[in-house]
Amino acid sequence: MQPRCKGRARQISRLILEPSQRREAVLEMIGSARRHLAISLFRCSDFRVLEEIAAAVRRGVEVEVMLTARARHWRKKLQVLAKLLESAGAKVHRNGPEQTKYHAKYIVADGERALISSINYTRKCYTETCDFLYLTREGEVVGVLLQLFRSDVEGAPMPEEGKRELVLGREGMAGLIQAARKSIRIIDHKLTDPRMLALLEARRQEGLSVEVVDKRALGGMQAHGKLMLIDDRAAVIGSMALSARSLDGRRELAVVIRDSGQVAELRRFYRRVRR
Questions:
Q1: Could you give the maximum distance between any two Cα atoms of the chain, in Å?
Q2: Is the pTM of this model over 0.85?
Q3: CA distances from 48 to 2, 54, 63 (A)
Q4: Is 96 left (phi over 0), alpha (psi -120 to 50) or beta?
Q5: Which residues pair with residue 158 across a beta bridge?
Q6: What is the per-residue pLDDT for 73?
């Protein structure tokens, strides 16, 4: 598959919030690769995605897939998925012991372009959920994603440098909350971690405006992806919930967005779905 829009390709980054555009963005990212693809999969029941991966292999792309070791009700499906990927010519990696969830959702193409999202490649996430996709060519973000992929493949520590725009765990998320000066606005239906709840309450007591939308129905969509707005000047999106399991026991990923136009777009989205 060829990239569908050269004008879009010239953009450094863009957000995708509408469910109808998610699948096309994933297929376009996979189809754009010419040398290498690093893909993190949690759930995938979309055979078009698998077909695009196979097509990438046929045109000479080295395809590596990080597949979670565990997903609820998906034990047999993950085994089948691994076999399908391997039969297509992709190299499948499993990170961590069997009980570990590799829940980060991202794709890196040719070491130049990245897609970071909160979606699974399933019909439900293409049509019914509140989720976020972020496409970027920003060199620091792409580079750190590749470092993350390689360190998780090899079981090596993640380098400290270059993490400013990616959030990988509790410390990074807490740091963003502590850095807020005026307001914190959150969409997260799984916000249950006692330390995070205490930190948010402490910031509220310090005079900040703290809002949490924890509904399971958001603007006609089912809650799934997570959003945090800091002072309406930065946004954090991704798969990482403010729960103990997500913060401490899984590989999760969120990206920090500082572009004023994109932050404003996410602020409008927040106001629309919080009602």
A1: 58
A2: yes
A3: 14, 10, 16
A4: left
A5: none
A6: 84
Long-range interactions of 22-26: CB distance < 8 A, separation 24+:
22/117, 22/119, 22/125, 22/126, 22/131, 22/133, 23/48, 23/121, 23/126, 25/115, 25/133, 25/135, 26/107, 26/115, 26/117, 26/119, 26/121, 26/133
Distance CA 88, CA 106 (A): 20
CA 224, CA 127: separation in Å to the nearest integer?
Answer: 12
The pLDDT, as a whole number, for residue 10 is: 52
Phi and psi at residue 84, to the nearest 5°: -65, -45
Token couple for 186: 């959150």
Backbone angles phi, psi at 35, to 5 degrees: -130, -45
Are 162 and 147 a contacting pair, CB within 8 Å?
A: yes
Q: Closest Cα to residue 177, out of 161, 193, 163, 196?
A: 196
Q: Taking a C-beta distance cutoff of 8 angstroms, is the pair 185, 231 a contact?
A: no
Which domains are assigned to the chain? 6-154 (3.30.870.10), 166-273 (3.30.870.10)
- Pairing relation of β-strands 183-187 and 209-213? parallel
What CA–CA distance (Å, rounded) separates 66 from 36?
14
Low-confidence ranges of the chain (pLDDT < 50): 1-9, 161-162
**Cα–Cα distance measured from residue 110 to residue 226, given in angstroms and rounded to the nearest whole number:** 27
Tokens encoding 257? 């967005």
- Token pair of 106 as six digits: 């991202």
Predicted pLDDT at 162: 47
Tokens of 47: 């055979």
* Tokens 């949690």 belong to residue: 42
Going through the chain in order, the beta strands assigned E by DSSP cover 13-16, 36-41, 62-67, 91-94, 101-102, 105-109, 113-117, 129-130, 133-136, 166-167, 183-187, 209-213, 217-218, 221-223, 226-230, 234-238, 250-251, 254-257
